[in-house]
Amino acid sequence: MIEPGVPRAALRRLAASRRARGAAPRAPRGIYGQRKGAALVCVLALAGPVGAGPLWETFAARCLTPYEHLALPDTRGLTQAVGRWSDGDAIDLELTPETCTALGVAEGSLGDLLATREHPYEEVAPGIWHSDRWREPRLEVTAGPDRFTARETDLES
Distance between CA atoms of 147 and 9, rounded to whole angstroms? Predict the structure, then answer.
């Protein structure tokens, strides 16, 4: 990879002087160096947790993230029908004043999925997870075979 703004002739002279001194040629950083590693980390981070399916991604984006930031669930682009919000696929949101539930086919372990979140969660009972001291009132997150639910509790630290 040629660095921007460096003439090719200057790069050839530099390589020739390195060979004359007996130095090993360096591999371009964009191929074998730090940039490739950073790109791999970015790709893995964007891919989401292993085992996370479309239901978790919808739940995290439309329910959990807004609740974590003290906001209302995100229903933009969804249509409302019979008390549920739908994206037109196999995923629906069921909203009450206290909860946001994403309905569909749940994949992955809730503990593993929550471990990838920015803030920590702790398991307070089998299958029930609470936000851990970073948000008050605490959030409660649960999962079933066909749903993920976020609920704001009245618990404080």
Answer: 62
Report the percentage of the chain scoring pLDDT > 90.
28
* Cβ-proximal residues to 78 (8 Å cutoff; 6+ apart), any chain: 85, 86, 87, 93
**CA pair distance 141, 129, nearest whole angstrom:** 5
pTM of the predicted structure, to 2 decimals:
0.63
Question: Which residue is associated with the tokens 């069921």?
Answer: 94
pLDDT tens for residues 10-64? 667 767 766 777 665 555 444 444 444 443 333 334 444 445 688 999 999 999 9
- Residue indicated by tokens 């009245």: 154
* Domain segments of the chain as ranges: 8-47, 54-152
Report the half-sphere exposure of 136 (CA within 13 A, side-chain side): 4
- How do residues 67-77 score in pLDDT, each as one tens digit? 988 899 999 99
* Nearest to 141, CA basis, from 129, 155, 131, 153: 129
